[in-house]
């Protein structure tokens, strides 16, 4: 196993925990995102890559 693979596996097995409280701004952004998803205002990764020229 490559060192990078081992590090990646360890990071996935032991994710960092963010104990910071969500702000009202965070909550509003999350709510807006959920509304956008429900309204179909989404783009696939392939669409974004095409728009950006597959950076």
The tally of structural domains comes to 1
What is the string of helix and strand elements? HHH
Structural class: mainly alpha
Shape: flat
pLDDT averaged over residues: 90
Distance between the termini: 29 Å
**What's the story with the biggest beta sheet?**
none
What's the number of helices?
Answer: 3
Oligomer: single chain
Short description:
The protein has 55 residues and is mostly helical. Helix content is 62%, strand content 0%.
What does the model show?
The protein has helices at 3-13, 24-38, 45-52. The two termini are 29 Å apart. The radius of gyration is 17 Å and the shape is flat. The protein contains three helices and no strands. It is mostly helical and 55 residues long. It has one domain.
Give the helix/strand layout:
Blueprint lengths: L2 H11 L10 H15 L6 H8 L3
Please supply descriptive tags for the structure shown above:
mainly alpha, single chain, 0% strand, 55 residues
């Amino acid at each position: 196993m490559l060192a990078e693979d081992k590090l990646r596996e360890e990071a996935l097995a032991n994710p960092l925990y963010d104990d910071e409280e969500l702000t009202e701004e965070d909550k509003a952004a999350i709510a807006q995102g959920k509304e956008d998803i429900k309204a179909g205002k989404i783009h696939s990764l392939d669409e974004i890559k095409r728009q950006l020229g597959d950076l």
